[in-house]
Each structure stands twice: as structure tokens, then as C-alpha cells.
Write a sequence for this structure.
């Protein structure tokens, strides 16, 4: 199996705060890894290290064969990695001055030098895949939150990434819109996309994840198949966390 | 003593053709200066938010100096002072345009800085995560959004600079106020002539406001 992500004793600090503490983690091609944990535990920081939105202080990190150096070294590798890794954000971060179509076309045209015709065809194909073909010429502010997040997913997919990172993709959504976004993610997983998902949606994690990772205070405390982690958590911190989030 | 003053409409009307000759100079100094000021503003505004301290320092120095001294002193310095340094006279028109450029450039730098900093960091992160380079992310994503937010304060600055050109009558540029002074020297109709001069400034600034409002409205739907 091909390893898409390989992290070895990775450490990250915010000032004196040790946010990630010697993290060892590998993600195989096609795997769906869901990362859970309390807010402030470092789970978002962890996936943000993978595409270099956060720098790390020590350890090793390779993504799809490119070695990312600590402290933002090796810009060349970083550029390669960002072409191969898509990211979906909690706040969508769509470009408000561009139409939905242009949001999706921008990166393929500027990064991959795709022609307008090809980029447009890609945009239309992806919009129909996430079920919003009819909104292509609207601006993001004219869409619902759920639609915006689906556009954000389409925008990331337009670069044909080998890995998709999801940073709490449903946390900013009204409850009735969470389902439509999770459906798209579920489809993506089924099609074999390698995914790392930070989420509080435990139902999604149980159903879709190949592996669940529980992070507590910057450390991987528990890791395993969803059934094992959710039904028989070994670590008492995992037990406490799960009893809090699953109780309601 | 009772005032016998009566507004002399004929005198006001008569002054118009002579005053109008000043308008091309007023417009040339304002918009020539503002165009250069806009370029300076982009350069120094972006430098002032650069990560490197060595680039920030000259930018903030420039901004503080030209924002912190009166434009009248600046133009007097350029017109009367600089010739000593460069060893030759400086045209009044050149001095005027330079003063507006340097002065508005300092204010526009701050407008640029504020506009760029007001754009959410998530926009940059989204651009970078898609594989765009830092400069692509800036020019395709951050700048267009920042520029729309900069339109109202830029309009403000344009109006201030247009009015500032009136000070350049002191170095003898034949702009609007200078024309008025020359005219009054012969006719002694100060009230009427300055009234017309004021109206002419108002006509210029109101047209500009109108254009800016239209420009802004066009951009509203998309942000």
C-alpha cells in the first residue's frame, strides 16, 4: 500500500504551548481517517501541518513522497504538496468576489494552466457531482451554508487532489444542512478518496471512517477501528470524552 | 455704518471665463498627483505590512513624514528649497504634482494597509491550500476584495487632494484660486469671485462623489 501521509515524532509549539507532542501517524492511500478530540486538543493544527498552513518545529513529515521540512523549510516541496492536497475549512472560505464557477476554475487555470474551456468543464462536472449545477453563476453569499460548503468541496476537488483534509466541515452549519455535506463526503469516501477529517460528527465517524484517532492535549491517545474506539475505548480519557459527546 | 453690499451677478458671470482657465491646472495637479500617489500608496502600503522589518521601516518612515507635515510646507520645500539641492529651478506645476503625489501617497498607503488587513486570513489560507503561490493568492484573491473596500477612503483622499491644490496658488501655479486672486486684483470683486471659485470646486468634487458612488454600487453585488 502507498503511504500518503507519514508523520514521525512531529512536535509543534505555539509559544510555550506544546500543541502537538511527538505525533506518529501514517495514512494509507484510500484510507478515511477521522480525528476526534475536544476543542483545543490540537486536531485542527495536526491536519493544518500536512499542507503547511502551520509550521512545525521538529520531527518528520512526508506527504505523497514530498518531504516537508520543519519551520517552513523547503518551499518547493510545500508547493508540490499543496497541489496534491485539498482542504475544506470550517468557515468555507469561498472567494466572495468570484462566482461559484470562477471559485472552482481559479486554481486549475492558475496552478495547472488549464484552459478556460477545460476548467469550466471541470467546474460543471464537479458542481453536478455535489448537486448544485444550477447555482454556478451565483456568488457565494447567495447560497446557503450547506451549498457553500459543497462548493468548497468541489473547489478543492478541481485540483484532483490525492488527499482531502476536512477541518470541521460541518461545525459552522445549521443542523438541517449538515446532512447534505456529509452525504457528499460519504460519496467521496466510497469512491476511494484518501481523507483526513476533523469532526464532531460521531455518527459519520462510526459509519465512514476506516480508522478513528482520538487526540488529547496534543497527543494521540487512542487509535483504531471506529467500532473499537467507540464501543470499547481503552484509554480513560477517550472514555470520558466519548461519554460527554455521545450522551446527548 | 450700514452695509450697502449687493451681490453683483454681472461681476460673477464675467469672472467665469477667466476662472475656467484655472480648472485644467487644478485637475492636472490633482489627478496627476493622485495617480502617482496611488502607485506610491500601493508600494508603501504593501511594504508596511511586509514580514521583513527592513522593508517595513522605510515605508512607515515615509508615511509618518508626509502624513505628519503640512502639505503647504511640503510644496514650499519642493519649490523653494529643492532647487538649492538639484541646482536648478523646479517648475511650479512639477512641484504641485509632486506634493500631491507624495502627500496623498502617504495617506493612500494607510488606506491600502487597512484594506488588505481587513480581509480574512481564511481567504489567504484557501488560496494557498489550492496550490496558488503567495503572490497569486494576493493578487487574485486578497487584492480584489481589499480594493473594493478601499474605494470609499480613496474617494475621500481624492477630494481632500483636489482641495489641497488650492494651496498651490502660493507658488504661482495658475490653478483655480490663483486665477481668482489675479482676477480680483483688477476688479475688487472678492465676494463674487471667491463664491464662483467655491462653486467650481464643489462641481468637481460632487462629480467625483457621484462617479465613486456608481463605481461602488457596481461592486456591491459581488462582495
Amino acid at each position: 500500500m502507498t503511504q500518503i501521509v507519514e508523520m514521525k515524532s512531529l512536535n509543534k509549539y505555539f509559544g510555550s504551548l506544546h500543541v502537538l507532542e511527538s505525533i506518529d501517524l501514517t495514512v494509507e492511500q484510500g484510507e478515511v481517517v477521522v480525528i476526534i478530540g475536544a476543542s483545543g486538543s490540537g486536531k485542527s493544527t495536526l491536519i493544518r501541518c500536512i499542507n503547511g498552513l502551520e509550521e512545525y518545529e521538529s520531527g518528520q513529515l512526508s506527504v505523497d513522497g514530498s518531504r516537508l521540512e520543519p519551520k517552513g523549510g523547503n518551499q518547493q516541496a510545500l508547493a508540490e504538496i499543496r497541489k496534491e492536497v485539498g482542504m475544506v475549512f470550517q468557515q468555507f472560505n469561498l472567494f466572495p468576489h468570484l462566482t461559484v464557477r470562477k471559485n472552482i476554475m481559479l486554481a486549475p487555470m492558475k496552478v495547472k494552466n488549464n484552459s478556460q474551456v477545460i476548467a469550466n468543464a471541470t467546474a460543471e462536472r464537479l458542481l453536478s457531482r455535489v448537486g448544485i449545477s444550477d447555482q454556478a453563476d451565483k456568488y457565494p453569499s447567495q447560497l446557503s451554508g450547506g451549498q457553500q460548503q459543497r462548493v468548497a468541496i468541489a473547489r478543492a476537488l478541481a485540483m484532483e487532489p490525492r488527499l482531502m483534509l476536512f477541518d470541521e466541515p460541518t461545525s459552522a452549519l445549521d443542523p438541517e444542512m449538515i446532512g447534505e455535506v456529509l452525504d457528499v463526503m460519504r460519496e467521496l469516501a466510497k469512491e476511494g478518496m484518501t481523507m483526513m477529517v476533523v469532526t464532531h460528527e460521531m455518527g459519520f465517524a462510526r459509519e465512514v471512517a476506516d480508522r478513528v484517532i482520538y487526540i488529547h492535549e496534543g497527543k494521540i491517545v487512542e487509535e483504531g477501528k471506529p467500532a473499537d474506539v467507540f464501543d470499547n475505548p481503552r484509554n480513560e480519557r477517550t472514555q470520558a470524552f466519548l461519554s460527554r459527546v455521545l450522551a446527548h | 455704518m450700514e452695509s450697502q453690499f449687493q451681490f453683483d451677478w454681472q461681476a460673477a458671470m464675467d469672472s467665469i471665463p477667466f476662472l475656467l482657465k484655472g480648472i485644467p491646472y487644478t485637475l492636472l495637479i490633482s489627478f496627476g498627483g493622485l495617480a502617482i500617489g496611488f502607485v506610491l500608496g500601493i508600494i508603501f502600503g504593501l511594504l508596511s505590512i511586509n514580514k521583513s522589518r527592513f522593508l517595513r521601516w522605510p515605508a512607515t518612515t515615509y508615511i509618518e513624514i508626509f502624513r505628519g507635515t503640512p502639505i503647504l510646507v511640503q510644496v514650499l520645500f519642493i519649490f523653494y528649497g529643492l532647487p538649492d539641492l538639484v541646482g536648478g529651478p523646479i517648475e511650479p506645476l512639477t512641484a504641485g504634482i509632486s506634493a500631491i503625489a507624495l502627500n496623498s501617497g502617504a495617506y493612500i498607503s494607510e488606506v491600502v494597509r487597512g484594506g488588505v488587513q481587513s480581509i480574512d486570513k481564511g481567504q489567504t489560507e484557501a488560496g494557498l491550500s489550492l496550490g496558488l503561490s503567495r503572490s497569486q493568492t494576493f493578487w487574485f484573491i486578497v487584492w480584489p476584495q481589499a480594493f473594493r473596500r478601499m474605494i470609499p477612503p480613496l474617494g475621500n483622499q481624492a477630494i481632500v487632494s483636489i482641495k489641497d491644490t488650492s494651496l498651490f496658488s502660493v507658488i504661482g501655479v495658475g490653478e483655480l484660486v490663483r486665477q481668482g486672486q489675479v482676477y480680483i486684483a483688477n476688479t475688487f470683486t472678492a465676494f463674487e469671485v471667491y463664491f464662483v471659485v467655491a462653486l467650481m470646486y464643489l462641481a468637481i468634487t460632487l462629480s467625483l462623489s457621484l462617479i465613486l458612488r456608481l463605481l461602488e454600487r457596481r461592486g456591491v453585488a459581488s462582495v
